[in-house]
Amino acid sequence: MTKIAVLHTSFVFVKTDPLFDELMDELVPDAEIVHFVDSDVLATVIHDNGISDESTERMVHLAEAAEAAGADLIFSACSSLGPALDVAARRVNVPVVKVDDAMAHEAASRAERIGVLATVPTTLGPTSDLIVKHAGLQGREVTTTPRLAEGAFDILVAGDRARHDELVVAEAKALAADVELLVLAQASMSRLAERIEQETGVPVLVSPRLGVGQLAERVHELAG
Q1: Which Pfam families did the record assign (predicted)?
Q2: All residues at 6 or more sequence positions from 144 whose CB lies less than 8 Å from its CB, including other chains
Q3: Which partner for 142 in 41, 87, 135, 183 could form a disulfide, CB atoms 3.0-4.6 Å apart?
């Protein structure tokens, strides 16, 4: 049985949203899933307005703990810490799958003008950079337009999901006027994808299903 370690940087999903557990049950039903959480590192990155060397090392340590626990694959559920996971991937001998990697690849292949919407400011740069990176690998040129639904993440953490949703949808509508495709840069917004598509008429990509789908492919590769 393949052992998958899921790395979290906040309790938002661990405590309040079963999305990743449901996707794992559907797409990798025979795998053993274990969770590793640093519940403060995302808050630290937000406070620091970027990923410090110390925050990077915290993600490396989380990945090393997963490796020490016998994980066959590591799945990072956080988009904001993507660059830190790239460092971690070089420091462990276990394959690392990032939740937003498949989404970035698809976004780069489908559109030239891409809107990137986030509720955490430090997610905008890493997600935009990842899309541009994938575009380059495909020989394509894209333009990303970042937009922050300011304050929405704190409102979600405080428990007001409805207010969070209204802020995200409002920003998505404003951004949709200027782009061909919208990327919701955090998994915490993914349940709004269908609503935003309906209200804007613009295609929307989210990371969880695409990311876990990529993880499932790696599981099958390991199984031979």
Answers
A1: Asp_Glu_race
A2: 114, 115, 116, 128, 131, 132
A3: 135
Q: Quick one: tokens of 39?
A: 């519940």
Residue 174: how many other CB atoms lie within 10 Å: 14
Residue 158 neighbours by CB distance under 10 Å:
10
Q: What is the Cα–Cα distance from 200 to 174, expressed in whole angstroms? A: 9
Classify burial at 124, counting beta carbons within 10 Å of its beta carbon; exposed 0-12, middle 13-18, buried 19 or more. Answer: buried
54-82 pLDDT tens trace? 999 999 999 999 999 999 999 999 888 99
Domains belonging to the chain, first-starting first, are: 3-99+209-223 (3.40.50.1860), 101-206 (3.40.50.1860)
- List the one residue out of 4, 2, 15 whose CA is nearest residue 66: 4
pLDDT at 180 over 60: yes
CB-neighbour burial class of residue 37 (10 A; exposed 0-12, middle 13-18, buried 19+): middle
* Residue 223: predicted pLDDT: 81
- Taking CA atoms, 132 is separated from 84, 112, 142, 192, in Å, by 18, 10, 6, 24
